[in-house]
Write the structure tokens for this entry.
Amino acid sequence: MTKIFLDYYCVAIHDTTMRRSEIIKADVLKLIRTLEKGSALPSRTALCDLLKTNRVVLDQAIRMLVEEGILIAKKGSGTYVANLIPTVRSWGVIVPDVADPIYAALVRGIEDVAHRLGRSIIVCNSDFDISKQADYIDRLIGHAVDGFVIVPVLQSDLKENYRMFMKLRHLATPYVFCNRLIDGIDAPAVLSNDFYGGYIATKHLLRNGYERIAYLAPITYKGSIDRCQGYITALQEARMTEDRTLIVMDEPTENEHGDQRIARLISEYHVDAFFCFNDALANKVLDISFELNHPVGIVGYNDSILCEQASTKLTSVRYRSQEIGSAAANLLSEILQTGFSGSYRLFSYLPELIVRQSSLPMRARSV
């Protein structure tokens, strides 16, 4: 039992040292950029004092730079700059999944601005994994990126996110959030107005004669809650009575139980329309309504390729991802030039409704 604990402890210490070494490596790279080829680095003691680190972490950072051919260590003489750092500047971009059309468009917007400014981007997929996001941030810091555009991973325990982004702030590495914020983190951000998206979707269904409108979301977090508040506001504005049994935010698409719940909303609760958190969920509702031979009005979210591929083309709220990506990149560039400021740097884009067949007025609806 003692050996297992010691092995675990040693692994944890090694991982912590490696993470810290990546950060110190980035600091050494910044120093190297001020030197000429062949110049000697300050002594290890002086570097430890300058970078506020210890000898173990510093040695690991320098060893990585030697392996990359940036430094050369001469025994008994010192460490020298072997090759100058390329002058091309880069930004780190971390998204949940670049294969998702929303994030692909976001990255395209960032890339367009980066190219215009003579910057390159390094794109990483977090896969909604907090530890993978942390690893990529450490690696990109180690490669001395100038700044980050991040779609942050959300989780119930905020400690890891807080630690990670406070580290960026401590290192004065600029970052901009896209799509969502993290509680407790004061960060520049470019967002889509989810409240407005929920409001215009529900308003559209009400205008087309629907009265029993359900809201479905696969998970409860700020974006789904904001869209729900927009949904409720539209109902209140129309002086419609809220029925909380028609609000479902607990993975209704993942299993047979979820399908049954949607079917019950249609057949037992007499729902005549659905506002859905995303297009995949809207498509699921469409399939079930066809199986029941009971057509309903449907509005999805994201305006993905599913909208045109569905048997009945789906009305959906468009996210304007490319514009958000461009705005985030421009904001990052501004921060890199002027530094963080006390001003409130939060920008919100209004989504737009793309109307198709799934939400035709009730009198014009057909299966």
The longest helix spans residues 2-32.
